[in-house]
Amino acid sequence: MTLKIHIDDSAPPYEQVRAQISEQARAGVLPVGYRLPTVRGLAESLGLAANTVAKAYRALETDGVIETRGRNGTFVAAAGSAAQREAASAAQAYADRVRRLGLDEGDALAAVRDALRAVYDEG
């Protein structure tokens, strides 16, 4: 696993850690079942505070990308299905909300495209 923290990046270090681990897991660079370094170990290797890495790990666990198995460690989870379920749930909530707001399908899709472009064009 290779992570690089860019101090001059506008994204906070914990978000950089979260995004890089998530992307590497999604791309298969970190296969399902891969054991991640301890919070303290990764923090030391990156020159970060342990709380920064712990925050990234908590976010990754919430997203279903990793799972903690107590004293056995932290591992890459089978995140595809969990991530897809969460995305579908968020999409359904969005669709319900824009319909209540009275937006037509074209305006709703345009808003999503703009939001996705803003997020994905950042990195």
Task: Give the SSE map.
Blueprint: H1 13-27, E1 35-36, H2 39-46, H3 50-62, E2 66-68, E3 74-76, H4 79-101, H5 105-120
Antiparallel strand pairs: 1-3, 2-3
Helix pairs in contact: 1-3, 2-3
Task: Please describe what this structure looks like.
With 123 residues, the protein is mainly alpha-helical. Helices cover 61% and strands 7% of the residues. It has a three-stranded antiparallel beta sheet with strand order 1-3-2. A hairpin with a 5-residue loop joins strand 2 (66-68) and strand 3 (74-76). The longest helix is centred in the last third of the chain and has 23 residues, at 79-101.
- Catalogue the unreliable spans: none
Q: What does the main sheet amount to?
A: 3 strands, antiparallel
Structural class: mainly alpha
Q: Taking all residues together, what is the mean pLDDT?
A: 90
**Residue share in helix:** 55-70%
> Per the principal axes of the C-alpha atoms, what is the gross shape?
elongated
Order of helices and strands: HEHHEEHH
Global Rg: 17 Å
Number of strands: 3
Number of helices: 5
**Strand order of the main beta sheet, please?**
1-3-2
Give the CA-CA distance, first to last residue: 19 Å
Strand content: 5-15%
Question: What are the main properties of this structure?
Answer:
single chain; about 120 residues; mainly alpha; 3-stranded antiparallel sheet; 5 helices; about 5% strand
Can you give me a brief rundown of this structure?
By secondary structure, the chain is mainly alpha-helical. It contains 5 helices and 3 strands. The model has no long low-confidence stretch (mean pLDDT 90).
